[in-house]
Amino acid sequence: MRFVAPGLALAASLALTSFLTGCAIENTAAPSPVTGAAITGTVFGGSQPIVGARVYLLTPGISGAAGPGIAPTSTNASLSLLNSSVAGAGHDSIGYYVTTNSSGVFSVSGNYSCTTAYAQSTGTSVTITSPNVVYLYAVGGYSTVAQQPGNPASALLAVAGSCSSGIRKPTVALNEVTTIGAAYALAGYASDALHISSSNSTYAQRGLSNAASAVNNLVVRATGVPAASTATITTPAANIYTLANILAMCVNSTGDTSAGSACGTLFQYASSNGALGTQPTETATAAINLAHNPWPTAAGMTALYNLVPATGAPFAGGLTAQPNDFTLAVNITGSLSTPQSVAIDVYGDALVTNNVATGASICIYLPSGTLANPSCPSANGSTFPYAIAADQYGYLWSANNDNSLTVMSEPSIVQKSPTGGYTGGGLNFPQAVAIDLNGNAWVANYGNGSNSSVSEFAQVFAANAGAAISPTTGYAAGSVQQPYAIAIDATGTIWVPSSGNNTIVRLSGSDGSILTPPAAGAYTGGGLSAPDAIAFDNANNVWLANLNSNNLSKFASVANGGGALSPSTPTVGSFAGGGLNIPYAIALDSAGVAWVANFGGNSISAFSNSGAPITPLTGYSSGNLNKPSSIAIDESGNVWVPNSGGNSLTEFIGLASPVVTPLVTNVRAPLSAPASRP
Questions:
Q1: What string of DSSP letters covers 621-678?
Q2: Whole-angstrom Cα distance, residue 271 to residue 260?
Q3: What's the sign of the alpha-carbon dihedral 365, 369, 374, 377?
Q4: In this structure, are residues 296 and 277 in contact, taking their beta carbons and an 8 Å threshold?
Q5: Does domain 10-14+329-666 have CATH number 3.30.470.20?
Q6: CA max distance for the chain
């Protein structure tokens, strides 16, 4: 039987939202010009200055999506900010640029505008609001006489800051370290170094802004070194140095891409789909591809790691042994005690529950990994907060093992529920909570194993806010058995995996009655074996993680017949493998990839929408994972995992495709599809 004790609630608080104006194309009169900040910096390959590199100042473009939730067929080109009035600026198909001198130094005067950008190739001017992400791209140049007139494969990145809140890092060092930081942080919105874009939605602009803030947990942009660990945040400095060294082998070469060369090997295994797909032609895009595919096959891992010389590497402090994968994850500690569940809220922050009796609390973390409040707010007299969800109104709901619900507002953390929480409605050892389209909360009750049920509670703005709507015995008593999870689709239907009898039960969101089909009232087959986690992809297909058999199950949406899409006996390579080991939680990203937290394997797994494992047989295991018990994806594409055995929280930077948050927002108009892209 699944261990049921510690509770994790990852709570998020308001940050930046009030001034995120984004990079939206305006249809109104042009805004007053906003002068950009002067920027100076250096371009280095390892420890060598790069002479004659072309340096561009870019901002993400607007994608071809018709609106949030509709993924564009390809990422649109970034927009150029520099213009002919910038002293010494040259021009090519990308846009205006400045050039590094003999010391690798460049300077951008402050007379570019933060309200006018230019399309690549055509140079067409585009009126924008102040962009919330500005980045530098340096290409070509040479660091040694042998590289003259320049290495066309050398390209470096750095996040410069934000025009909307001021470019706060006017001195920027571009090198392989800052390239890795920018590539991973912005990976969710990038297809290559010159095609970073988002939709015109508030969600996407917040996601981009939050992604840029995550750079600070990876690198120091002013000096081009990895960010130092603090008392509460452990950064992956050695991993960053290793990746930087891999890039440097190509940057500090002549740009030869033949088989076996440094650039040739890098481009082979940093292709658009790992070891497959389109090969990059320069190192910045190779870094973005590695962020998208941090395990480019076992052979690729070895080949890339072996590019770094045993002695004399450009950057000291790298890994001393080949890593399991090339993911970058930060580990967050402090204020966490047996964290159990995580969710992302309406502000893009992470909510975590501390599943303890004494000092039970809910921690709220900004995308930067820092606490939104000086301390984690109390669970309001309840004990053992276990599961957590965020509603569309800025409230968080925590289901507690003392048979209560805690509700509090964000970001002010005002308690909505009374001391001891909301009770009744059949609450009996609650294991999961989900919010419906109306803002009502639905809870899966494990009970004592024989009296399982589902509860419903009124939304926060109802006259009877927090009151139990379900009867004292709950809904579906006797039909659901030992449920650990609950989810709600775009029709408002409630889905409950019943681990005790290997089925999925569907309930009406109107009255909690059991729905058919299937005729027996429950889905079976598809490899179901103690299903303990459930989520939807953006086609409304249902995904489940199976505790007993270490596999995933997939069922078609009701509109498409609801039949099993996974085999009755999954095999490694098809809904199994990929590091699955006591899978505890599942989340789908906007690309249709299933992400799973492996409680037994101290890892996370990823599967394509067809059920093929993306991760190795060990999964991804960085970030000090220790009995990971939940998983959530934010609007930047970061993956958040609480470690119930390590009293910590792991944030994988830029690992997934961004998802609109909170989850209920995905199934409400105008999105009306789970796992929607911002």
A1: --S---SB---EE-TTS-EEEEETTTTEEEEETT-S----SSHHHHTSTTT-STT---
A2: 15
A3: positive
A4: no
A5: no
A6: 81
Picking from 198, 180, 195, 169, the residue whose alpha carbon sits closest to that of residue 42 is 169
Residue-wise over 93-129: b if at least 16 C-beta within 10 A, else e? ebbbbbbbeeebebebbeebbbbbbbbbeeeeebbbb
* Bond preceding residue 280 cis, omega within 30 of 0: no
- pLDDT tens digits along 413-458: 889 999 999 999 999 999 999 999 999 999 999 998 789 999 999 9
Q: Distance between CA 336 and CA 360 in Å, rounded?
A: 10
Question: Residue holding tokens 């109802």?
Answer: 462
Among the listed residues 210, 205, 196, 29, the one whose alpha carbon sits nearest the alpha carbon of residue 130: 205
Q: Please report the pLDDT score of residue 158 as a whole number.
A: 97
pTM attached to this predicted model? 0.93
Using the 8-state DSSP alphabet, how is residue 545 labeled? E
Indicate the domain borders of the chain. Answer: 10-14+329-666, 25-199+237-327
Overall average pLDDT of the 517-544 stretch: 92
Side chain identity, residue 33: P
321 Cβ contact partners less than 8 Å away, ≥ 6 residues apart: none
| Integer Cα distance of 130 and 122 in angstroms | 21
What's the mean pLDDT when you consider all of the chain?
90
Residues 602-646: tens digit of each pLDDT: 999 999 999 999 999 999 999 999 999 999 999 999 999 999 999
Half-sphere exposure of 554 (CA within 13 A, CB side): 25
Question: Which alpha helices (H) appear in 158-281, and where do they start and end?
Answer: 176-185, 202-214, 237-251, 262-269
Tokens of 37: 């900040």
Asked whether residue 5 carries a pLDDT value surpassing 70, the answer given is no
Q: Tell me the CA distances in angstroms from 245 to 266, 306, 309, 312, 654, one per residue in order.
A: 11, 10, 9, 10, 20
Provide, rounded to the nearest whole percent, the portion of the chain with pLDDT above 70. 92
Q: Which carries the bigger pLDDT value, residue 73 or residue 106?
A: 106
Give Rg (Cα) of the chain: 25
DSSP assigned state of 352: E
How confident is the model over 554-595, as pLDDT tens digits?
A: 999 988 888 999 999 999 999 999 999 999 999 999 999 999
**Torsion sign over Cα 330, 334, 336, 337:** positive
DSSP string over 428-493 = SSEEEEEE-TTS-EEEEE-TTSSS-EEEEE--TTSTTTT-B-S-TT-BSBTTB-S----EE-TT--
Single-letter amino acid, residue 634:
D
